[in-house]
Amino acid sequence: MREAVFEIGNELDGPVAGFGARFRELIRAANQDLAGAFDQPAIELTYTDRYLLSPLTVRLLGELLSGFAGPATRIQVRTLAVRPGGESKGGAKIDKDWRAMADRDLILKATLGAISPLASLETSHAIPHRRRLDFRTSRVSGTIFFDQGVGSWRTATDTLFDFGDTPSGQIEQMKQLFEITNNPHGTFVAVRLDPAGAPR
Hints:
Layout: E1 3-8, E2 14-15, H1 19-28, H2 32-37, E3 44-48, H3 55-68, E4 74-80, H4 101-115, E5 119-124, E6 131-136, E7 141-146, E8 153-155, H5 167-173, E9 179-182, E10 187-193
């Protein structure tokens, strides 16, 4: 089967580290086509999501991409340059939005660069509402469509984050260990493999 829909509950709950690897194995277990599609690191990954606004979503995105990428993977992330709805009210927890989007950009770039030196960030004032991960491997290309992106997952307990820290300090904070849990209603993910020879 070259298309599959997943209703995800608590299957990916656990340590934030390894979230992407667990996600990849969940998809690979669905059928033989998907198992073969993701048996090697991707050559190219392009992730589009308007709402990469908090340290939690950036950390989860980094973990997600790490599950599919290798050091030679070309990665591009597309997201909004400014927070929709105006300035963040701030806070002291990892799931709150950055008030300074320049800090978000710097830390997101650092997160991506730690996965692959071929990673880049594209910000824009107009990003589609869809959340998707387009991929190309040595065998196939396709798309993973997300109902809520990585925003469906929360920290299992309150996790602090100092937004007033220096950029380098914030990057270190991004490495902290914590548990994640899906929201009580779960989420949907769909995977589509392109027909052989289809243009990307």
